[in-house]
């Protein structure tokens, strides 16, 4: 039978929030990034 650890901390919720914020910021910055690539590539 598996041992139950009272001190175990589940960080999956924090990681999900962090990944959501990264995706939100990257999707917001995508049009600007495309504009910069088009401006610098000629």
Structure overview:
By secondary structure, the chain is mainly α. The protein contains one helix and no strands.
Radius of gyration: 20 Å
Tally of alpha and pi helices: 1
Proportion of strand residues = under 5%
What are the secondary-structure elements, in order, as H or E? H
Largest sheet: none
- Which term fits the overall shape? rod-shaped
Low-confidence parts, pLDDT < 50 over ≥5 residues? none
Count of beta strands: 0
What would the average pLDDT be, to the nearest integer?
Answer: 87
Give the N-to-C terminal Cα separation: 64 Å
Report the helical percentage: over 70%
Overall SS class:
mainly alpha
Keywords: Membrane, Transmembrane, Transmembrane helix
Transmembrane segments: 12-37
In short:
By secondary structure, the protein is mostly helical. Helices cover about 70% and strands about 0% of the residues.
Annotate the secondary structure layout.
Blueprint lengths: L11 H30 L1
Keywords:
42 residues; 1 helix; 0% strand
